[in-house]
Specification:
Number of helices: 22
Oligomer: single chain
Shape: elongated
Helix content: 55-70%
Radius of gyration: 39 Å
Largest sheet: 5 strands, mixed
Length: 399
């Protein structure tokens, strides 16, 4: 009677199909509360010769659920592993760990490594003793990138002048640049330096006033702060800034018709000037703050960052050094008779780019905001032009 009650409460009986790598197959009847390790022992007793005298035999084997290809955990029960009636399990011996290498093999491996070892300084000096000595100017190597950036600016200044003359011959150039100028108006109206704005709002100034002060002071935090303090009691401090388009339209209405009918070349030149003014240099806020905290004047810091393309370390060296080149020299172009400039103008890719208005806009932007160079290098229209200029410079710089 006791055995019958045990069978009644033993749980659901499952019939599992067991397979081994040797091809043996049989059925095992287990209940849902049977442990996986216990099931594995029963399987090994049936298929392993010599029984389970070695305690490691159980740990060296594993049961795998054939359908899901997952290894069953020894610590779980059949029910916890969610096994179902007539499921197929594979009994597999675990792969033995790799044996440690023998001493002879280790010696051979070390010998092979020694043979493949890179030559040391003594070996290099011995082999290169017959070569002619060369003096390498390390300063030129270290400042090669900076030299390229300096020369690139001069190249851009001269290329802009060439592009302006070529585009003046394009019948659609005026309309194209009027649209570009309008787009720049919208961009300038919306642009606010987030870092500078955050500084002013953290000082306690209202956001709307801080935005107005920054726009009136070319995003200079110091000048904007002074403006806010000076106009704190001004009743018109919260008045919105006038729309640039309204001033422009009023000025055009006031012009006599004879003056308004200027030549196409003069109109295009006027548009170029407006675009250049809008592309004025924008110092990197964090670098500017860091340098001003060292005690340098704001104008000095702006000049340093402008000369050194917003690179803080280079700007610091410029401020502490002889301050060459000067900010005034940045507006000088390259010698148009130089081999470098002639090679650039002779390049077909550059020639095609100079008659593309987008290339001129890219040159203008990079001239005052060198950090935007990556954007134009990745542009499908302007990227090839910049790549050719860089290649020509590097080629001639080596000769």
């Amino acid at each position: 009677m006791f055995v019958q009650e045990e069978k009644i409460f033993a749980g659901k009986v499952l019939r599992l199909h067991i397979c081994t790598m040797e091809g043996a197959e049989w059925l095992e009847e287990v209940t849902e509360d049977t442990g996986v390790e216990k099931l594995k022992e029963r399987c090994l007793k049936q298929c392993v010769q010599g029984g389970l005298e070695d305690p490691k035999t159980v740990t060296h084997h594993k049961l795998i659920h054939a359908t899901s290809e997952r290894v069953l955990s020894d610590t779980k029960t059949v029910g916890e592993e969610n096994l179902q009636d007539k499921d197929v399990l594979l009994l597999i011996k675990k792969r033995a760990p790799a044996a440690p290498p023998k001493m002879a093999d280790v010696s051979a491996e070390e010998k092979k490594k020694q043979e493949q070892k890179a030559p040391d300084k003594e070996d290099i000096m011995k082999v290169t003793a017959q070569l002619a000595a060369r003096q390498v100017d390390r300063m030129v190597t270290q400042h090669n990138l900076r030299d390229f950036q300096t020369e690139l600016r001069k190249i851009l200044v001269s290329l802009i002048e060439v592009a302006q003359k070529l585009l003046a011959l394009n019948p659609d150039a005026v309309e194209l640049f009027k649209k570009a100028n309008a787009m720049l108006d919208e961009d300038e109206e919306e642009r606010v330096d987030e870092a500078a704005l955050r500084q002013l709002t953290e000082m306690g100034f209202p956001e709307s006033r801080a935005v107005k002060a920054l726009r009136l002071n070319h995003m200079s935090v110091t000048q904007a702060m002074e403006w806010l303090i000076e106009h704190a009691e001004d009743p018109a401090i919260d008045a919105p800034l006038p729309v640039p388009g309204g001033k422009k339209a009023a000025a055009e209405e006031a012009k006599p018709e004879a003056v308004a009918e200027i030549s196409k070349q003069d109109e295009l030149t006027d548009i170029f000037k407006r675009i250049r003014r809008k592309r004025e240099f924008r110092p990197e806020p964090r670098a500017m703050i860091a340098l001003m905290e060292m005690g340098f004047d704001e104008k000095e810091v702006i000049d340093a960052l402008r000369v050194n393309n917003n690179q803080q370390d280079a700007a610091c060296e410029w401020l502490l050094g002889d301050r060459k080149p000067s900010p005034e020299e940045l507006d000088n172009g390259i010698d148009v008779e130089s081999p470098l400039f002639q090679a650039i103008l002779d390049n077909p890719v550059v020639q095609l780019g100079l008659i593309n208005p987008k290339t001129l806009l890219a040159f203008e932007d990079m001239l005052e905001n060198p950090l935007n160079s990556t954007q134009w290098m990745n542009d499908p229209e302007t990227g090839p032009v910049m790549l050719q200029i860089s290649r020509i410079f590097q080629t001639l710089n080596r000769t």
